[in-house]
Structure formats: C-alpha cells, structure tokens
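STRUCTURE:
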C-alpha cells in the first residue's frame, strides 16, 4: 500500500522576534511532516509558540529562516487552500447562519465571475451554495438555526457554524487554534465528537492547537509536544520534544481508561519546565507516602 503524500512539511524552521532592545528566539529548528488525512494535535507549555506556529502555517507570519510547505507548495502568505478556526467566532454578524457558511464558497467564485461579468450565474451559484450550506448545518444539528443571526446563538452553536464555514470549502489543511477553549465541558465534548465525525467522513488533514492534554489525546491520532524547555539548551526557543501516537478508535469511554491517563501524564511531564516537573514529582511522592501510612 503506497504511503500517503505529505499535506504539511516544515523544514529547519526558526522564528525570532526582535526589537531595538531584545532578541527572542520563539521557535528553533523545527522539522515536521504531516501526511494527508492525519489529525495532529500540538500541545505545550504557555509561551512555547503554538499559536505562532499555526500563524506561520496559515501564512499570516513569515519565518526568520526555514520553509513551510502545504501540498508541496511553499507558504508565502494566506491561501484559500488553508482553512482556520479560531477560539473567537469569526462570523459576520450581519449575515444569517446559512449565509455565513455559504460565504466561503462564494469567495471561491467571485474572481472568476467578476472577470466575465455573469451576475445571473452568480445568483444561480448563490442558491446552490445556500442549499449545500443548509445540508451541512443539518448534519451539524443547526438546521433550525440557519436563518438566525450569530448574536442569537450560544457559544457552542457559533463554533459549529465557524467549523462548517471552513469545512464546506474543503481546504487542503484545516488549522484549529484552541477552538473549544471558551466552552463549558459538556459543550466541549459534544464538539470534540463532532470534529471526529467530520474527520472520519472527510478524511481531511487537521492541525489542532490546544492547551488541554485530555482533548489532544482524545481527538488526535498524533500528539506533538512543543516546548522551550530542553536539557542543556539555555531555553533558546521551542522545538518538538515528543511525537506520540494516540488511540485512533475512541468512544468517550477511552477517557476513563488507565492507558489514556498514563499517556496524558507522560505528555505532561515531557513538556514541563524542570522546576515544574520537580514540584509535581515531589508532590506525588509525598502524597503517596502519606497514603501508604494511612
């Protein structure tokens, strides 16, 4: 069976922030390959550059050195081949839900239609796009909300619309920057299940940034730990310190298994600062000693 082609390749990537007084190495010598159809989660301590890495892949920033390739093409700026879902809901408040979802597809056609000045064709496509958007909303449990405005929706509903807005365009790679971070635990789990179902159906490539280790291990088939804390490296920027496979076939029951908890603990310790790691180990050891004496 032939190997899947690469959706994303990062080569010798370094990102440095400079001003008149200071120089800060944010990312240092990153190398990563992601195959088409993979669901990859990026985790790491605060300040390690997770969101900066996502912005580089999206083309919103340029690296100091190195290269990022999406589908074999160098990333020089934002591209329609890359979709992105943020924690804040990037919806147009003046559009209905169904028009918000259809809007992305309309953008794909605007340049062509404007060249040929075909308003009648655009009206036909607009109806077609709305029908397709309506179908996606039904799949995501939002059919009854399709004619509402964003301010009439709950946070979880808004995020489902934002996901539909990107998924419907079928981008080569979908970037998600802590998309469920502002939601309550119950809504968060529902959306985790939703994104897993979408990935199973679409087999799209997902690059998912989160600070929640349980979420990362649950939704992703591969978890990358990015950390600025490396032995004998004087904290000169973050790099990949761990790359692990997570269980692929998972119901919510997997969250309660010993293996699941053990994998989370292993990932957590690998990305901690040395002093934080020592605090945790010392606490665990003391707590266990007290428990043994009871």
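SEQUENCE:
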């Amino acid at each position: 069976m032939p190997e899947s082609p690469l959706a994303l390749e990062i080569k010798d990537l370094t990102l440095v922030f400079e001003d008149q007084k200071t120089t800060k190495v944010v990312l240092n010598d990153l190398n990563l390959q992601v195959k088409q159809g993979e669901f990859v989660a990026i985790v790491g301590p605060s300040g390690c550059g997770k969101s900066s890495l996502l912005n580089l892949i999206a083309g919103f920033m340029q690296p100091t050195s190195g290269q990022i390739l999406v589908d074999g093409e160098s990333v020089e700026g934002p591209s329609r081949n890359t979709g992105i879902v943020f924690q804040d809901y990037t919806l147009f408040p003046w559009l209905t839900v169904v028009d918000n979802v259809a809007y992305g597809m309309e953008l794909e056609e605007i340049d062509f239609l404007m060249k040929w000045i075909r308003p009648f064709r655009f009206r036909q496509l607009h109806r077609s796009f709305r029908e397709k958007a309506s179908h996606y909303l039904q799949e995501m449990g939002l059919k009854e909300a399709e004619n509402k405005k964003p301010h009439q929706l709950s946070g979880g509903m808004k995020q489902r619309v934002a996901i539909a807005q990107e998924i419907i365009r079928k981008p080569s790679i979908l970037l998600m920057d802590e998309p469920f971070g502002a939601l309550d635990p119950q809504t968060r789990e529902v959306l985790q299940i939703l994104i897993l179902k979408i990935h199973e159906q679409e087999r799209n490539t997902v690059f998912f940034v989160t600070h929640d280790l349980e979420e990362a291990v649950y939704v992703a088939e591969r978890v990358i730990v990015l950390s600025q804390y490396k032995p004998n490296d004087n904290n000169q920027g973050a790099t990949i310190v761990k790359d692990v496979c997570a269980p692929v076939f998972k119901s919510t029951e997997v969250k309660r298994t010993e293996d699941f908890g053990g994998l989370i603990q292993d990932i957590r310790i690998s990305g901690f600062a040395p002093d934080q790691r020592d605090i945790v180990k010392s606490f665990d050891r003391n707590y266990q000693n007290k428990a043994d004496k009871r």
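REMARK: The chain has eight helices and ten strands.
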